[in-house]
């Protein structure tokens, strides 16, 4: 079986290469979703891992077919053997770490000295509980009776309609800068690995151009979503098909277990998105910066808004600012040490903003305290992101996407459609984008058109449905239903857990109108997709996220902090100067130092908050210059 699986894996990879060579199968410039499913290249050294992952996946699929779900589950859950791997793939990788090296590696390896590969770029995510595929390895989950789950776009479009009809007219004071900063943090812990071939691409086509039908060329590189002719938005436009490209899994050691998605970033909050594996430094140790101060990798990635480029750019600029300051210190250090000390400082400032500013703001006091973020370094836990977070509740903040955002060139306010910021980035000015961002509130109470119908649009009319992609990811990863995750979390944190027998029981989580909608679509309350936790009504006091989402988020950020040997609060290699600078520098300082705004927000996570003159902040930071000589 293994031999057969290998042959099928090799054949599939070869076919993918052939598919990718045909220009008819590639997205073309001018189409609205060109770039949306951008893929990186499988590099030479990664090829073996990709092949082994695919071989194991094929092997498990045949096993499930031959022996049935129960037996396969027993094997995958370790009840037959522990640590079984396919024989073709034995032997462990040896990485040697220099235990006294004071800086981070660029791919995350050697952060954990006992387990050097933990948290490294390219590793798989982790399933906290076994997935719920109907065949236990890869076929989509079904409802209790065995029927398929509700159709993706039909469900999402109706959810949007129900929220529109019952919209409560809620407003929020939270600013979109919170969302784009969170997005950057998310991108640092999870790098999407859309199924790849040896050549990078701008996305593979599963629909014909314009989306009027599915493409006649089918391939494991695409898995388009169907749209019904009576779709409220897409119907009249003649769109019947939305592109959707599957994720690559990672199981490079051929372990007989549930295979999770590959994470192309290091899980540590180490700005791996900015510094990359191959950072380009000049001979002083400065980063080669592109638009708004971002690295080339960020500026070239898609889909991306100019705001995410500009926010990450603030940290790129801080790196170079630091190198300049260190350069004028009396005692000179070697280049390598200057650049690594500056990098450690920048990562420290960034981690501080996340753990001391962003999370308290999003969680509110009660959850922040309950979450137990005051843990210590724990080398026995693996640094990894959960598959449930990536493909489900972690996407919650997408719900805040508004139809318009402010752009403020030369201090003049203009409201522009959300999606214009995703194209032709060079036309936007960095300060104008950031100045507008902190004055743009998030959307609450309903789902915007920019999110549900015209996401990533170029012409304002043809776009995609981001929540449909989110639901597609939830299902392709085989995530278990909402109530299953709820029971799991409640058990984990020692809370009482109730049963959901009828749809009325769901009223403790959702509004009555929404519960009625779920009843129309699902057979049983225990079938409801976990993604819908993003629409939950329960909240901890003061929290900006719904309860289940916030519990899942708490677990992720707690793990990422406490598995990071070089976290800024306990990194023994940070000097006194770095410690003080990390205390002093925050978003307000970054805005003041690296934008041309005349005054800057003291609380950038909310709109209309207090402001302070930029010149005052600059002179304050200037007075700290001496600290750069003690990093
Ligand atoms: C307005 C800003 C944002 C936009 C435009 C945006 C857009 C996207 C897009 C296009 C994807 C890829 C979808 C896919 O193919 O699976 C994605 C993935 C994701 N987003 Fe967002 N996002 C934003 C903000 C956020 C925020 C604030 C969070 C939460 C902190 C978040 C969490 C996620 C997660 C967990 C994924 C899956 C990880 C991945 O595919 O790399 N996003 N987002
Ligand atoms: Ca990282």
Q: What share of the residues lie within helices?
A: 25-40%
- Classification by helices and strands: mainly alpha
Question: How would you classify the quaternary structure?
Answer: single chain
- Measure the end-to-end span: 57 Å
Low-confidence stretches: none
Shape: globular
Mean pLDDT: 96
**SS strand fraction:** under 5%
Helix-strand pattern:
HHHHHEHEEEHHHHHEEHHHHHHHHEEH
Number of helices: 20
Largest sheet, if any? Answer: 2 strands, antiparallel
Rg (C-alpha, Å):
24 Å
Strand order of the largest sheet: 1-2
Number of strands: 8
In summary, what is this structure?
This protein is mainly alpha-helical and 631 residues long.
Write the layout of secondary structure elements.
Elements: H1 2-21, H2 47-67, H3 69-76, H4 152-165, H5 176-189, E1 225-226, H6 234-237, E2 241-242, E3 249-250, E4 260-261, H7 272-275, H8 296-300, H9 306-327, H10 335-371, H11 387-391, E5 404-407, E6 414-417, H12 430-437, H13 449-452, H14 466-476, H15 482-493, H16 512-521, H17 547-562, H18 576-584, H19 587-594, E7 599-601, E8 611-613, H20 614-622
Antiparallel strand pairs: 1-2, 3-4, 5-6, 7-8
Helix pairs in contact: 1-2, 2-3, 4-16, 5-9, 9-10, 9-12, 10-17, 10-18, 19-20
The site of calcium ion (CA) has 7 residues, from helix 5.
Structure description:
This protein is mainly alpha-helical and 631 residues long. The chain is built from 20 helices and 8 strands. The protein has a two-stranded antiparallel sheet with strand order 1-2. A two-stranded antiparallel ribbon has the order 3-4. β5 (404-407) and β6 (414-417) form a beta hairpin. It is globular. The model has no long low-confidence stretch (mean pLDDT 96). Bound molecules: protoporphyrin IX containing FE and calcium ion (CA). Residues 179-180, 182-183, 186, 190, 192, 303, 305, 390, 394-395, 397-398, 401, 469, 473 line the site of protoporphyrin IX containing FE. Residues 194-223 are annotated as: Disordered. Residues 213-222 have a biased composition (Polar residues). Pfam families: An_peroxidase. Heme b binds at residue 398.
């Amino acid at each position: 079986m293994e031999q057969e699986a290998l042959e099928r894996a090799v054949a599939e990879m070869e076919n993918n290469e052939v598919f990718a060579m045909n220009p008819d199968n590639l997205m073309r410039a001018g189409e609205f979703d060109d770039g949306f499913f951008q893929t990186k290249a499988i590099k030479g050294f990664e090829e073996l891992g990709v092949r082994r992952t695919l071989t194991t996946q094929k092997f498990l699929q045949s096993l499930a077919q031959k022996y049935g779900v129960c037996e396969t589950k027993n094997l995958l859950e370790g009840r037959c053997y522990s640590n079984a791997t396919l024989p073709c793939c034995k032997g462990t990788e040896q990485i040697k770490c220099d235990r006294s090296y004071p800086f981070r590696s660029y791919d995350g390896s050697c952060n954990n000295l006992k387990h050097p590969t933990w948290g490294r770029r390219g590793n798989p995510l982790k399933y906290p509980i076994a997935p719920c595929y109907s065949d236990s390895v890869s076929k989509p989950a079904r409802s209790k009776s065995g029927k398929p789950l509700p159709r993706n776009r039909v469900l999402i479009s109706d959810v949007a309609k129900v929220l529109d009809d019952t919209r409560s007219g809620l407003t929020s004071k939270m600013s979109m800068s919170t969302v784009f900063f969170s997005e950057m943090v998310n991108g640092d812990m999870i790098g999407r690995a859309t199924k790849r071939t040896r050549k990078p691409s701008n996305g593979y086509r599963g629909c014909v151009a314009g989306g009027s039908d599915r493409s006649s060329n089918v391939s494991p590189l695409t898995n388009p979503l169907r749209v019904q002719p009576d779709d409220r938005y897409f119907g009249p436009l003649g769109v019947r098909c939305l592109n959707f490209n599957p994720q690559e899994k990672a199981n490079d050691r051929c372990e007989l277990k549930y295979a999770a998605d590959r994470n192309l970033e290091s899980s540590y909050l180490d700005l791996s998105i900015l510094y990359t594996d191959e950072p380009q430094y000049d001979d002083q140790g400065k980063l080669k910066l592109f638009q708004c101060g971002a690295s080339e990798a960020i500026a070239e990635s898609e889909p991306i808004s100019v705001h995410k480029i500009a926010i990450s750019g603030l940290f790129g600029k801080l790196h170079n600012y630091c190198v300049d300051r260190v350069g004028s210190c009396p005692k000179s250090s070697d280049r390598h040490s200057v650049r690594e000390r500056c990098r450690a400082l920048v990562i420290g400032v960034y981690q501080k903003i996340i753990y001391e500013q962003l999370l308290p703001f999003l969680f509110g006091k009660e959850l922040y305290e309950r979450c137990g973020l005051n843990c210590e370094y724990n080398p026995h836990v693996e640094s990894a992101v959960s598959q449930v977070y990536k493909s489900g509740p972690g996407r919650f903040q997408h719900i805040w996407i508004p139809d318009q955002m402010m752009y403020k060139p030369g201090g003049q306010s203009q409201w522009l459609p959300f999606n214009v910021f995703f194209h032709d980035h060079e036309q936007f000015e960095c300060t104008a984008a950031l100045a507008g961002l902190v004055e743009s509130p998030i959307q609450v109470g309903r789902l915007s058109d920019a999110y549900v119908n015209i996401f990533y649009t170029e012409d304002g009319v043809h776009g995609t449905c981001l929540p449909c992609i989110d639901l597609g990811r939830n299902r392709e990863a085989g995530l278990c239903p909402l109530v299953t995750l709820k029971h799991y979390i409640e058990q984990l944190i020692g809370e009482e857990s109730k049963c959901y027998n009828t749809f009325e029981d769901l009223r403790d989580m959702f509004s009555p109108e929404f519960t009625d909608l779920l009843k129309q679509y699902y057979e049983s309350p225990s079938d409801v997709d976990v993604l819908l936790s993003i629409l939950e009504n329960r909240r901890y006091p003061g929290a900006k996220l719904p309860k289940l989402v916030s519990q899942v988020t708490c677990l992720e950020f707690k793990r990422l902090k406490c598995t990071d040997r070089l976290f800024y609060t306990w990194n023994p290699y940070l000097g006194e100067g770095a410690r003080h600078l990390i205390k002093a520098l925050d978003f307000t300082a970054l805005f003041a130092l690296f934008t041309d705004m005349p005054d800057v927000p003291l609380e950038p996570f909310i709109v209309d908050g207090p402001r302070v003159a930029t010149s005052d902040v600059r002179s304050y930071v200037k007075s700290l210059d001496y600290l750069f000589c003690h990093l």
